[in-house]
């Protein structure tokens, strides 16, 4: 301990200076500490410091920690605020993106037929468009204020080959109404069954049937020709519903996109696909007749490729070049065209109808698997089959009756048109829900939220009367 309790102590007449460190010796005594600072000329300065008491050190440490914690907390708070703002911005952006996607999906449902028509008029082959054409069509129909480049990626519309297949794209989006207790399948089928039945019941000859659809006699059916027919028949389909039927028909590989038309024989086959009725209910219940129709159909189509090829060869000779037969072997086109050719083969009188005798004679030329059938077909059996096929009861078989009896198609395909038409009806209800709600309020003055079925029907009929044919 320095004698003077200072931080330094000179000795030897100032020639030696001893420096001490500050200490309080556990509170018993204490001295300053010293630091000597030399200048360049070797002059020096001694500065002293002191060691505070343990209580002061503890207080100073606490104050230092508090100040440090305060600075840390302020920094942490600012960091958390920035993180919260960033997360909010990210969440808001994600929420906005989802809202945009949801809005786009609703608009696609509401404008599906307009979108298809726009894609269709671009003249792209095989139901496909380029990404640029897809963006342009969406901008024209749905609006130019949407980020279509971003949405094209987000919706994954471009396939691996670099094209957008617009039929598949549009089929993704639909307004669904499927209550578990609602049996509406038959009702949906009736929407299209009326079209087929009204034409079939007219009992037209083959030539009249072809001219009904192929009005310019070029061997093909265009959308304009089909639309004119449905309009004239007045079967209650709106223009969007007619476009739905044409969209399903033109999904066929035989569709000539450049010309906007499809081979008339395949058109009738595709038209048959959407019709679910087969033969009269009272005759369908006869087991042997069901087996006979199945076996006869297989025998008629046993050489379907050769029969279809004869039709296409005739088309080529007439100047109506169709696609190569090899591209059709995996589609229903061969069956439809083969039946068309077989009907002409069996029509010995050339009047466009099959008499019962024509039908029986043609079927007797076929090789029918009697082992699968379970009995030998006699003329009596065949005349009863002809009577069952003749659903109009005219004592002769027109082409549509022949087609609908023997054109076997995938059961899932039969419902596609009904599903699409049902979807269009649901979309129209969704699009005009505000008007329907106001109409329902007229039947619910107490605002209970419930009306009976008759009032609900009246509200729908009222709204439907003011809708144009384009809706």
Automatic annotation (TrEMBL):
Its EC number is 3.1.3.16. Keywords: Calcium, Hydrolase. GO terms for molecular function: calcium ion binding; protein serine/threonine phosphatase activity. Residues 201-236, 377-412, 431-466 form the EF-hand domain. InterPro entries: EF-hand-dom_pair (IPR011992), EF_Hand_1_Ca_BS (IPR018247), EF_hand_dom (IPR002048), EFCB6 (IPR052603), Metallo-depent_PP-like (IPR029052). Pfam families: EF-hand_7 (PF13499). It comes from the Eukaryota. It is an enzyme of class 3 (hydrolase). PANTHER family: EF-HAND CALCIUM-BINDING DOMAIN-CONTAINING PROTEIN 6-RELATED (PTHR20875), GH12158P (PTHR20875:SF0). This is Serine/threonine protein phosphatase. It comes from Toxoplasma gondii p89.
């Amino acid at each position: 301990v320095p004698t003077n309790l200072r931080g330094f102590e000179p000795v030897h007449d100032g020639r030696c200076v001893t420096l001490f460190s500050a200490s309080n010796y556990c509170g018993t005594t204490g001295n300053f500490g010293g630091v000597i600072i030399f200048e360049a000329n070797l002059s020096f300065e001694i500065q002293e410091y002191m060691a505070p008491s343990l209580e002061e050190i503890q207080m100073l440490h606490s104050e230092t920690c508090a100040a440090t914690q305060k600075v840390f907390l302020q920094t942490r708070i600012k960091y958390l605020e920035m993180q919260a703002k960033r997360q909010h911005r990210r969440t808001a952006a994600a929420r906005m993106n989802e809202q945009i996607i949801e809005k786009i999906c609703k608009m696609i449902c509401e404008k599906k037929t307009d979108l298809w028509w726009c894609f269709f008029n671009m003249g792209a082959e095989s139901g496909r468009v380029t990404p640029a054409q897809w963006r342009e069509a969406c901008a024209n129909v749905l609006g130019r204020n949407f980020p279509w480049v971003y949405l094209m990626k987000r919706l994954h519309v471009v396939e691996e080959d670099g094209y957008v297949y617009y039929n598949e794209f549009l089929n993704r989006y639909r307004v669904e109404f499927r209550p578990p207790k609602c049996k509406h399948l038959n009702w949906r089928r009736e929407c299209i069954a009326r079209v087929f039945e009204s034409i079939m019941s007219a009992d037209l000859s083959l030539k009249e049937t072809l001219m009904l659809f192929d009005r310019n006699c070029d061997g093909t059916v265009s959308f304009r020709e089909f639309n004119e027919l449905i309009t004239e028949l007045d079967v209650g389909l709106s223009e969007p519903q007619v476009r739905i039927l044409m969209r399903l028909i033109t999904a066929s590989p035989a569709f000539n996109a450049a010309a906007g038309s499809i081979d008339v024989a395949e058109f009738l086959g595709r038209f048959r696909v959407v019709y679910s009725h087969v033969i009269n209910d009272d005759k369908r219940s006869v087991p042997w007749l069901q087996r006979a129709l199945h076996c006869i159909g297989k025998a008629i189509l046993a050489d379907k490729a050769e029969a279809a090829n004869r039709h296409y060869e005739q088309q080529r000779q007439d100047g109506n070049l169709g696609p190569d037969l090899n591209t059709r072997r995996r589609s229903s086109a061969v069956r439809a065209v083969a039946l068309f050719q077989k009907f002409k083969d069996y029509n010995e009188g050339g009047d466009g109808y099959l008499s019962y005798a024509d039908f029986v004679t043609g079927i007797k030329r076929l090789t029918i698997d009697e082992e699968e059938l379970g009995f030998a077909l006699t003329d009596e059996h065949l005349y009863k089959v002809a009577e069952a096929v003749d659903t109009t009861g005219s004592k002769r078989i027109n082409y549509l009756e022949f087609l609908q009896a023997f054109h076997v198609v995938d059961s899932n395909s039969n419902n596609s048109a009904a599903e699409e038409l049902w979807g269009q009806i649901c979309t129209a209800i969704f699009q005009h829900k505000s008007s329907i709600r106001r109409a329902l309020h007229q039947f619910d003055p107490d605002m209970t939220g419930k009306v009976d079925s008759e009032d609900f029907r009246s509200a729908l009929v009222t709204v439907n009367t003011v809708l144009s044919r384009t809706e």
